[in-house]
Design brief:
The chain contains 2 helices and 12 strands; from the N terminus they run H-E-E-E-E-E-H-E-E-E-E-E-E-E. By secondary structure, it is mostly beta strands. About 20% of the residues are buried.
Length: about 170
Amino acid sequence: MSRNACVFVVLIISVTAFGETAPIRIKVATVPDEYIPTNASVREPVSMADYHFEVNRETVRARLVVEYTYPDQIIYGKGDDARGPQPTIVQLPGLKYLPQAHAVVYEAGGKQTVCAEVQEHKGLLGSRLRVKNTGLCRVSAQRTKHAEDDGWQIQRFTAIDTYFEVH
């Protein structure tokens, strides 16, 4: 089953039998729960640092960016060639940039939720868009135990599962 099909299945499950939408929770990523900076030999626990929405004026698209961190990033960060845990960048079905409304919205079940407001700012280097979260669409992360069958044995590991949530 493709990733988009999985997301679609989650959306269908989120709608109750009475036609009302229940809170939507879509898994967007599974990332390692530990990180070893290239200039250190210690394993650092990873956590979600922040998230934001990005828009592309030309294509009129929106995407979600989730950033991760580790406790000693301020110490190892400058000399870390890998630059820390890599962010998750994802375009979710239903997440849209509506330039006429100056908003990033999430559409599901006939309902639109404004995830972020988009403002144009003009400066010395031209105009740019500032995207500010409304708090109606959130991202959460939780440490989860996983098991994967590699065809011979079951590999068990702990990772961080990241979820996009609309309430």
